[in-house]
Write a structure and sequence with these properties.
The chain is α+β, with helices and mostly antiparallel strands. The chain has two domains: about 200 residues, Chloramphenicol Acetyltransferase (2-Layer Sandwich); about 210 residues, Chloramphenicol Acetyltransferase, CATH 3.30.559. The protein contains eleven helices and 14 strands. The strands form three sheets. It has a six-stranded mixed β-sheet with strand order 4-5-6-1-12-11, with helices on one face. Strands 7-14-13-10-8-9 form a six-stranded mixed β-sheet, with helices on both faces. A two-stranded antiparallel ribbon has the order 2-3. A hairpin with a 2-residue loop joins strand 11 and strand 12. The longest helix has 23 residues. The relative contact order is 0.16.
Length: about 475
Amino acid sequence: MDVSNLRVEDHGLPMHVAALVILEGAPLLDAAGQLRLDIVRGNVEQRLHLAPRLRQVLRQPHFGLGPPWWADDPSFDIRKHVQARPIPAPADEVTLLRVCSELNEGRLDRFRPLWEMWLLTGLADGNVGMLIRLHHVAADGIAAVAMIGGLFDPGPDPPLPSAALPSAAPPSAAPPDAVPTSTAPTSTAPPDALPPAAPPWKPAPTPSVWELLVANLRERTSAMTGALALLRRPSVVISRLRMLTRQARLLAHEGVAPQVSLNQPAGKHRRLLFVRADLGEVKVVAHAHGGKVNDVVLAAIAGGARRLLESRGELRPGLVLKASVAASVRGPADQQATGNLVGVILVPLPVGEPHPVRQLEEIIRATEARKRQPPYQPSARFAQRWMVRAMSHQRLTNLLVSDLPGPAAALYFAGARVLDLFQIGVVQGNITLSVGVLSYAGRLNFSIVGDADTTGDLAVFAAGLSETLEHLTAGDSANG
């Protein structure tokens, strides 16, 4: 799954996840109103031992030496990863989102650790934006939240670096057969002490060709041994084959997605809009109908899509779109792991239904049925290659959705309160609309990403989404 993200990017589609953080400005600015960039860089660098992947670079070995592997970057320079950019006038949210879209369009440099942080200054309200970009090969959505979690604090006075968010990935998260990388000891200073200097970091030496060859042979031998052991357990093999067959039947039963203008070749440029909601109100609606927060999210997205297609003259009775919803397949032991452990669930969105409550009820029934089956996950190499090649003309889905649980309490960065937090998704292939949802401190934040060449009317979708949420949370569900 990790390597598949590289294959997608090799076909011309940038593959990184991103987040936009809105920070209280005053603690980050000096008396002249200038960003204290050196302080910010130092704050980030002293916490990188909590997420070792952020100081590692992806290496591509020669043929026969195995898949790409992570190695410590001996020339790591925090100045190349944490940078600043002023927001031009009028420096409002519209301008901020336009700058974020521009910064987020390009690929990350594969010759460096695959992440960037941009501090966006000069906002009219005095706050500071922070755009964080992280390559998908390093983490899926949940792993990305955990990985960058170590950069934030639960209060304005930073605790010890080792006491950052519990979800931060520990240095020992690498698989046992991975090429060795450096780790750092945990500080034992008292809890009320000021944050100490970063633990000393020394990059692990790059493994030799011989070490890579041995590691590759060991991995292949282990895989072969596992396959032979599996063959000695025919009941397990039969069970897996039955599951794959059942999934193939379900996928065939889903049928093709309807042909609508949402499915066009995506270009290189993006539009970005935000919608904010109250998480408590959304939970009340979800519980009143026996559903989950994610069901209300999907109903709001259905309302936005209905409004958009109606404005384009494409809405028709009974129209049902197909949404590809990211679904984690992480077990309890995988919560701290880096990399990608994610599948997708195809959820029908009844955009032909005019009433939001009935839309919600249909979505709840659909998601309940799909939760009984494991998410679709093209894990075989052939299936992944086929998926990458078919992205530009696929007929399985109309839009992409990612809904992640975020921090329940307010966070701080270098003493500055995090005022807002959004995840920013991708559009790719022939899918021109993506919605990323992230909860934060009692709020539910929607980021809507559209292909700039085909979604000049993205604001129509955002308005439909917002009005659907207002309808559902206003108490109209009682008489729906």
